[in-house]
Design brief:
Helices cover 37% and strands 22% of the residues. By secondary structure, the protein is α+β, with helices and mostly antiparallel strands. β11 and β12 form a beta hairpin.
């Protein structure tokens, strides 16, 4: 780790010699003056504080549970002087999520370690003995196994696994406090018989308490994201309709704070199809509730007057001003007749659709208009287009563009380039096309950071 002394050397007054190792200084060595001892002690304290500051700064920059647990393993290995390790996330309340990650260990190695009976493994003993929020007790001490070959009371399988993977000692640290309860445990493995000295144990203990508090915060964020995502999915269509002449696919991801992005695909009379995407301002449960109300209302207006998208959005704008005066929303509604390959659409402050085909990849030219709820009366002209056979129309929300981290003009250019690069084999399947666009536009994936935007990508391929 750059800038960090991974060996964390301990001065003489803090280091506990291992059994059988004679002290470094002989009785005939000169005794240093008191001032030198104080200077050594101060230097050691400054070194320790600097190390902990750097490691906790790195930890606090992590924004997901997996990322944080990996950082804990890296930092802990530096503090205890180990090369390999394993972290287990297992909250005591049983509500999850759970995870097992390795440092310097392959996935198969983790599976082998997990064959050791839990009751005899060091991390298993910690997990089974850690406190839970309902019964706060003293957090158990770390477990040191200095020599797996001679340690008494070990299960034979434990020694067999250690010999197979080539480690001879371990140090296991509980990831728990009386306030947070049990979150998990971390264990580091030594290639030779060894154990961390007093100073190392003290440093990793301090770091472990801070790491547990950080993991607890991320756990609450993740659980909130899952709950909001579940609510959002329940408010959106459980499946896309099957309409002759068009194939549909959607990719939807709810951000950690639960935004108000929506999509819809509604069969209409005479074989027509209504497609919509939109976004309500705000985050959290109130934004989700507003999104659900608007989407349901848009469905009703689409059934009554779907062939006129301007009228649909005008009605939605009036409803928004009357029922959600503190909010605004962007929306796009398209009335499609697949048998005629004809689409009439209107947008209110929303990003234009993108047509993807063999001969063209271009944005639909829509008129500029304000979001719903921004003006005293909304109205904008509709646009008509005719997709060619085999072309796909992509509808999306602004979150897809913002996730790139680029200015909007560059984000639009990147989206168009991603769509233009879809392999020919994927163009006939709207789901594969959408996946390719997402992978190309967001190569690092949909992060779970606290500032992550909702993402909606609705693809309609016309036969």
């Amino acid at each position: 780790m750059a800038g960090i002394n991974s060996t964390v050397p301990g001065p003489p007054h803090t280091t506990s010699p291992l059994p059988g190792v004679p002290p470094a200084a002989a009785p005939s060595d000169p005794v240093p003056p008191p001032g030198a001892l104080i200077q050594d002690r101060l230097a050691a304290w400054v070194s320790d504080l600097t190390t902990l500051h750097e490691l906790t700064e790195r930890l606090i920059r992590t924004s997901s549970l997996d990322e944080a647990l990996r950082e804990v393993l890296d930092a802990g290995a530096a503090l205890v002087g180990a090369r390999r390790g394993m972290g287990v996330l297992e909250p005591a309340d049983g509500l999850g999520p759970t995870a097992t990650l390795g440092l310097g260990l392959a996935h198969a190695d983790l599976g082998i370690i997990e064959t050791v009976p839990r009751a005899t493994s060091s991390y298993g003993r910690l997990l089974d003995g850690l406190p839970d929020p309902a019964r706060p007790e003293r957090v158990p001490d770390p477990i040191t196994i200095r020599d797996l070959r001679t340690e008494e009371g070990l299960d034979p399988r434990h020694r067999e696994v250690a010999a197979r993977l080539g480690f001879a000692a371990s140090y296991a640290l509980p990831l728990a406090t009386e306030e947070t309860g049990r979150l998990g445990a971390a264990v580091w493995f030594y290639d030779e018989p060894a154990e961390p000295d007093t100073r190392r144990r003290h440093l990793v203990g301090l770091y472990g308490r801070f790491a547990t508090e950080h993991l607890a915060r991320l756990l609450q964020v993740e659980r909130a994201r899952v709950r909001l995502g579940t609510v959002a999915e329940e408010l959106l269509p459980s499946r896309l309709p099957r309409v002759p002449g068009v194939l549909l696919a959607v990719r939807h991801h709810t951000g950690p704070r639960g935004g108000g992005d929506w999509y819809d695909a509604l069969p209409l009379p005479e074989g027509a199809l209504g497609l919509s995407v939109g976004s309500v301002t705000g985050t959290g449960p109130s934004a989700l509730a507003a999104m659900g109300r608007l989407r349901a209302s848009l469905r009703a207006y689409a059934v009554m007057e779907g062939e006129d998208p301007v009228a649909v959005l005008s009605d939605l704008e009036l409803l928004l001003r009357l029922t959600e005066p503190a909010r605004s929303a962007t929306a796009l509604f398209a009335y499609a007749e697949p048998d005629r390959r004809r689409i009439v659409l209107a947008g209110a402050g929303h990003a234009p659709p993108l047509i993807v085909g063999e001969r063209r990849t271009e944005f639909v030219e829509t008129s500029l208009s304000a979001p719903l709820g921004m003006l005293s009366c909304w109205e904008a002209p509709s646009v008509e287009l005719s997709p060619a056979p085999g072309e796909t129309v992509l509808l999306y929300t602004d979150g897809l563009l913002r996730r790139t981290g680029e200015p909007m003009d560059r984000a639009f250019a990147r989206l168009r380039a991603a769509a233009a690069s879809v392999p020919k084999a994927d163009r006939d399947e709207p789901g594969a096309l959408a996946d390719h666009v997402l992978r190309t536009l967001l190569p690092d994936g949909l992060d779970t950071g606290a500032d992550g935007e909702d993402v909606v990508l609705l693809a309609a391929r016309f036969a």
